[in-house]
Amino acid sequence: MAAVTALSVEAVHAALSEIPDPEIPVISITDLGIVRGVVVDGESVEVTITPTYSGCPAMHAIEEDVNARLRAAGFSEVKIRTVLAPAWTTDWIAPQARERLREYGIVPPHPVRAEDTHRIHLFSRSIACPRCGSENTERLSEFGSTACKALYRCIDCREPFDYFKAL
Amino acid sequence: MNFEYVLRLGDNSLVLGQRLAEWLGHAPILEEDIASANISLDLIGQARLWLTHAGKVEGRGRDEDALAYLREDHEYRNCTLVELPNGDFAFTVVRRVLFDAYHRLLLERLARSSDAEIAAIAAKSKKEVDYHRRHSADWVIRLGDGTGESHRRAQAALEGLWKYTHELFVPDAVDPGAADLREPWLADVRSILGEATLQIPADGKFVSQGRQGVHSEHLGYLLAEMQVLHRAHPGARW
Question: If you count Cβ atoms within 10 Å of the first and of the last residue's Cβ in chain B, which end, N or C, has fewer?
């Protein structure tokens, strides 16, 4: 019985949804929206993923995790295909993952706004502190500990926090 | 698309990415150290995509590593602008805004290419270069419209760099449409430099030729540092 149910597309999605992002372990790679397709053919599987940032060092680790997890699930052959188009956007991050990000201390990304691409000044959006909820916050740096985050500080509770940048 | 053309795209990103990485541990403040590293990483990631594609277009079995680590300076096709030494922080951000504004317009155009792979890499990279330009423009405005000292340094950087921008818009057999980007680039750069209260220098006759493989002496030193590990230990892997 295991053979038939274990090697389905649904089973692959379930397995992938348990692979945490290597740098933000409270969300999975399916939450992130980078899994773009799954094709199962007998005991072989092809997973299509798209990179977040061009230079994101986590992509290699993610490919290794996908390979290991799907082999453990019973596939004898695991192929990973990378696609670039359409380019990944933070708008693809799953709604349920956004709350987990906030609880973890990272403010989830606001929706992407086309007009921001033309600006010639760094800007702060009104970003509420994930700890106390105050909107009295300031951006310390557009660039943080990973490519996807900016560093903010809450002026009321004085705690620094990360914002997952809209891309 | 032409191998040489794709090499230009990859080499611009790789060489500027390498220059920015030199700020690691040396930037004036920690936030800018991290910003330089982040932007460098984006550019090197983009270079990997371009050089991998260039290797396929060439069809002689060269991969991204062969192209990045096993070419001599005269085989590099980046514009001279990106290989100049970093200088002070003003020079670094003024160079960046001149290049980022160009890079962004170029990628916007390439994202509409009929070559699907070129279009995909360009569209992906463009999203990152949007915020690269925002970051460099913000700094150039802060320095130019800042203190007497920061203005003086930003203006001196612009004087030194301006002549290297001519090359970007000179058409040749590899890039017959290069001149098309000059007007939109000038408009963007003028608005940024105007807000920064910086004076654009007069155009001269000098045209650098990095894109044709005729580089300044600086590229050789940059490549020596970048390539030493791979050349000393061929096939080395992490």
Answer: C
Phi and psi at A76, nearest 5°, equal -90, -20
Report the alpha-carbon distance of residue B22 to residue B198 in Å, rounded.
26
List pLDDT tens digits, range A32-51. Answer: 999 999 999 999 999 999 99
Residue type at A75 in one-letter notation: F
The answer to whether the beta carbons of residues B140 and B94 sit under 8 Å apart is: yes
| Chain B residues with CB-CB distance to A84 below 8 A | 49, 120-121, 123-124
Q: What are the chain B neighbours of A120 within 8 Å (beta carbons)?
A: 133-134, 137-138, 141, 191-192, 195
Residue B166 CB coordination number (10 Å) = 18
Q: Where are the alpha helices (DSSP H) in B63-217?
A: 64-69, 89-110, 116-144, 148-161, 182-195
Q: Are B138 and A147 an interchain contact pair (Cβ–Cβ within 8 Å)?
A: no
Q: B71-74 contacts: CB < 8 A, separation 24 or more?
A: B72/B223, B73/B215, B73/B219, B73/B220, B73/B223, B74/B213, B74/B214, B74/B215
User: One-letter amino acid identity for B71?
Assistant: R
Query: Which residues of B are less than 8 Å from A86 in CB distance?
Result: 123
The predicted complex's ipTM stands at 0.91
- Parallel, antiparallel or unpaired: strands A44-49 and A35-41: antiparallel
What is the rounded distance in angstroms from the CA atom of residue B220 to the CA atom of residue B228? Answer: 12
Q: Report the DSSP beta bridge partners of residue B214.
A: B209
Pairing mode, if any, of strands A149-154 and A77-82?
unpaired
Q: Which of B46, B120, B191 sits opposite A120 (nearest CB)?
A: B191
Q: Specify whether the CB–CB gap between B69 and B231 falls below 8 A.
A: yes
Distance from the Cα of A15 to chain B's closest Cα (Å) equals 28
Q: At which residue do the structure tokens 């019973």 appear?
A: A74
pLDDT tens track for B25-77? 999 999 999 999 999 999 999 999 999 999 999 999 999 999 999 999 999 99
Q: What is this structure's pTM?
A: 0.95
Kind plus residue range of the DSSP H or E element containing A163: strand A160-164
Cα separation of B39 and B20, whole Å? Answer: 8
* Contact (CB, 8 A) for A130 and A161: yes
Q: Which spans in B2-115 are helix H?
A: 3-21, 30-58, 64-69, 89-110
Residues of B in contact with A49 (CB under 8 A): none
